[in-house]
Amino acid sequence: xxxxxRKAGRGVFLPEEFVVPTLVAGPRFQIRPITVSDVVKDxxxxxxxxxxxxxxxxxEWGWPDxxxxxxxxxxxxxxxxxxxxxxxxxxxxxxxxDGERQLGRIxxxxxxxxxxxxxxxxxxxxxxxxxxxxxxxxEFVREWATTAWPFxxxxxxxxxxxx
Length: 163
What we know:
This protein has five helices and six strands, in the order αββαααβββαβ. It has helices spanning 5-8, 39-47, 50-61, 70-85, 132-147, and strands at residues 24-25, 30-33, 90-95, 102-110, 118-124, 154-155. A hairpin with a 6-residue loop joins strand 3 (90-95) and strand 4.
């Protein structure tokens, strides 16, 4: 069972010498670690996708709440940034190449199941659902998680049967 990075309470799950990816640029999107400076765009992406995200993450994560506020978003993003600094889990924003629009997020976290080293969860904003961008991002994330990271086995909760 997948446990939210917020609820995991784990230590470091990567070798100390591993250099965590900080920027990946492509023709249709970039990914980089989330920071508190992303809160305005992130809040917009979350609020615009509230129903979709609540259906995806639901009560297991307790996120996002139907009355998700900007203050909660700031705390959430700051927490995700700190988790990355502590090397406990890693969250990335998916943005347009010009950095003007947030398209979604990617989360890399330790697995609580012995059959995987990590879990990777990602989402795109509701207006990109089922788009070619979402399919392109999924292909990228699946390859990136198994080639750029030191994991042998990665789970993709909510997407195992999809391809």
